[in-house]
Amino acid sequence: MIESFYNMFGFFGALGIAIGCFVLFLFWISGVAGIADKKDDRYKNLKLVLSVFIPIYPIIWVWVDMYRQHTNMH
Predict the structure, then answer these.
(1) CA-CA-CA-CA torsion for 57, 16, 3, 27, nearest 10 degrees?
(2) Rounded to an integer, what distance in angstroms lies between the CA atom of residue 7 and that of residue 13?
(3) 51 and 31 in contact (C-beta within 8 Å)?
(4) d(Cα 48, Cα 36) in Å, to the nearest integer?
(5) Which structural domain range is residue 33 located in?
(6) For the purposes of burial, counting CB atoms within 10 Å of the CB of 32, is it exposed (0-12), middle (13-18) or buried (19 or more)?
(7) How many structural domains comprise the chain?
(8) Which of 12, 31, 59, 73 holds its CA 20 to 30 A away from the CA of 22?
(9) pLDDT computed for residue 42 by the predictor
């Protein structure tokens, strides 16, 4: 499988996709941790279940949270 992945995308394409998947995985893990850390959220359990079964939800949540923190700092 690794050989076909390399043959399909080439070295730099395979490297870019691997790094991109790794970064998305880090955003997913940090989103789940951020949602789990919220103390006063009424729907915390529902959000945790959604973040495990729908991986794009915590990624979007992290990006929105980073944007909100950026706008609060300026």
Answers:
(1) -30
(2) 10
(3) yes
(4) 7
(5) 2-73
(6) buried
(7) 1
(8) 73
(9) 87
